[in-house]
Amino acid sequence: MSDALSEEDLRKAMLKVDLLLKRRQAFWETPRNLAIILGVVVALVGTAAGIVGFQIGTRPPQTINVKLDAPLPTRAVP
What we know:
This protein is mainly alpha-helical. Helix content is 73%, strand content 0%. The protein has one domain (1-64). The radius of gyration is 37 Å and the shape is rod-shaped. The mean pLDDT is 86.
């Protein structure tokens, strides 16, 4: 009979330890998942910013063309 009690006590102790472990895992699960999502978002934004910067850097410089439709006014020289 003492073996049955010690086996039962051992099972209870194992259940307590298992519950404690599951509580600790559940406590850290949400912050860990949020950190993973945040890391992915930061990586994607950084990649997008790098691509945009590369595209801006590879464009040729903008040239400004001025077209005059009317002749320039002349000034009378005395």
